[in-house]
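Hey, can you fold this one?
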Amino acid sequence: MKKQLYKKWWFWLIVLFIIGTFINVTKRDGPKEHDEPLKVATVENVKEDANQEVTPKQTTETQQQTVIEKQQQNNQIENDLIQVTKSGGLGDTKSLIEKSYGNDENEPDSGMSSYRNNSLLVIYYNDIAFNVTLSFEGSGNKKFAEALGEAKTIMPTDAVKVKEYKADENRDVVQYESKALAKQLNSFYNNNEDLKPGTFIVILKHDNKGVYAMIIASGDNP
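Sure. Predicted structure:
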C-alpha cells in the first residue's frame, strides 16, 4: 500500500514554503498602520510650513529693518524742509525757530507760540511757521523802511514782491511770492486751491508814530 502524501516529509516542506510566501506578500501589500500619512500640498500646509520656518531671529531682523526704513523716511522729510529765512521765520520748522529764539514761552495747547518776551508770535501749520507776528512796542515804533528791513530777516529769502496796497487807514500790505515757501507749506497751499502756491503778505500796522507791529502770513487775505 502506498504511503499517503501528507505523511511524506517533503510534502510539509512545500506547505510551509507556500504559507511563508503568502505571509510575506500580505505584510508587504497590506495597510501600514504605523506609517505617517502623506502630507497633501495644500495652501494651508504651505502657509503652515512658512510660519514654522520663521525664526525669532528673522522676526527681529524684520522689525529692525522696518524701524530703519521709517527713520530713513523721517530723515528724508527733514532734509526736504530747509531753512528758508535768514533768522528763522515764515516757512521754517518749529525746531529751527526754537533753535534761533529759544523755547516756546506759551503753554503747549495755547494755539500760538511766543518767543523773545512775547515780541515774536508764531502760528504753526504741521510744525511749519505759516503766520508770524513781530511787535515793536517794546523797542519803539519803526519807520516803514526799517520795519520792512526787519521783515526781510524773517520771511523767505527768495521772496519776490507782487504788489503793495493800503488795507485801511492803519494797515499797509505788501504781497510776495516764494517758491521755497510753496515747497515748505505744500499741504497748506494744496488745501487752498484758489491760492497761488508760495503767496504771502506782510501787513504793517501803524499809527501816527510809525509801525508798531507787522504780520507776515501765508495767503493773500489781510
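The chain has two domains: 41-80, 94-218. Let me know if you want another pass with a different chain boundary.
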